[in-house]
């Protein structure tokens, strides 16, 4: 367990693990669920499900390799996804690219969470059993995870839902992503602490207060401590988020949806 991240070796991976890798010189991280067999289910910027147009603002945050699938010499089904869905199945090599492998931590103590300088690496929420996690990931591979949104429905949100089944009821705030919370929390902490410069002549004191506010803002948005989260079965996810026009469509999906990819 590192102070910044939790780097692991491939031999340490277990099916159902939430993994991530850093891109663009550690500017941001990309997340997915390891489902075994050297395969990963992940969520990426894709075409808007309503308009059919690609969300270029979201795509700018990702490597072009994620949006432009290339033939994989290892797994013929690498890159499999349903039409108009951002959820895809890729091999571990393609998921990592040239990045290192990290494992997202669940059920950490508040002290450990606050000690992590960077968001998007752990949560105080507990993980569900691996079989449940893999079931959610494979179901969403067949049925999608809605429209990609940098702050409310990104790759980390996808992986955290697969691991916990938790859904945030407030649709106007930040989603489950600790990475998104960090992007918002850092400037917010700087703004809130700026009036304290008049009371604290020491730059060290101001920096300490700013860092404290940043950590607390991250902690307050963690799904393990939030009170506006509910447990939602993956089969009911589309209805809860308004992806399905009619509830009976989801009921039909429950009966007809079968895995197309062997793990």
TrEMBL record:
Which domain of life does the protein's organism represent? Eukaryota
Q: Which InterPro entries match?
A: LRAT_dom (IPR007053)
Which Gene3D superfamilies does this chain map to? endopeptidase domain like (from Nostoc punctiforme) (3.90.1720.10)
Q: Which residue ranges does the record assign to the LRAT domain?
A: 20-179
Under which name does UniProt file this protein? LRAT domain-containing protein
């Amino acid at each position: 367990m590192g102070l910044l991240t939790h780097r692991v070796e491939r031999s340490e991976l277990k099916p159902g693990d939430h993994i991530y890798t850093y891109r663009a010189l550690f500017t941001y991280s990309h997340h997915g669920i390891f489902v075994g067999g050297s395969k990963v289910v992940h969520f990426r910027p894709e075409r808007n499900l309503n308009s059919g147009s690609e969300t270029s603002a979201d795509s700018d945050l990702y490597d072009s390799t994620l949006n432009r699938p290339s033939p994989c010499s290892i797994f013929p089904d690498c890159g499999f996804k349903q039409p108009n869905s951002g959820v895809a199945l890729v091999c571990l090599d393609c998921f990592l690219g040239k990045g290192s492998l990290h494992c997202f931590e669940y059920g950490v103590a508040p002290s450990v969470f606050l000690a992590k300088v960077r968001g998007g690496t752990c949560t105080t929420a507990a993980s569900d059993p691996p079989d449940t996690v893999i079931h959610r990931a494979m179901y969403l591979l067949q049925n999608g995870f809605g429209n990609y949104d940098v702050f409310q429905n990104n790759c980390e949100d996808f992986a955290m839902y697969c691991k916990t089944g938790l859904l945030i009821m407030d649709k106007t705030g930040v989603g489950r992503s600790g990475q998104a919370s960090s992007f918002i929390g850092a400037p917010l902490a700087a703004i809130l602490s700026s009036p304290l410069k008049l009371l604290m002549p020491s730059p060290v004191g101001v920096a300490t207060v700013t860092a404290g506010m940043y950590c607390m803002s991250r902690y307050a948005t963690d799904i393990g401590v939030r009170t506006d989260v509910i447990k939602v079965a993956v089969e009911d996810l589309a209805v809860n988020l308004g992806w399905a026009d009619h509830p009976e469509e989801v009921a039909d999906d429950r009966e007809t949806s079968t895995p197309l990819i062997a793990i």
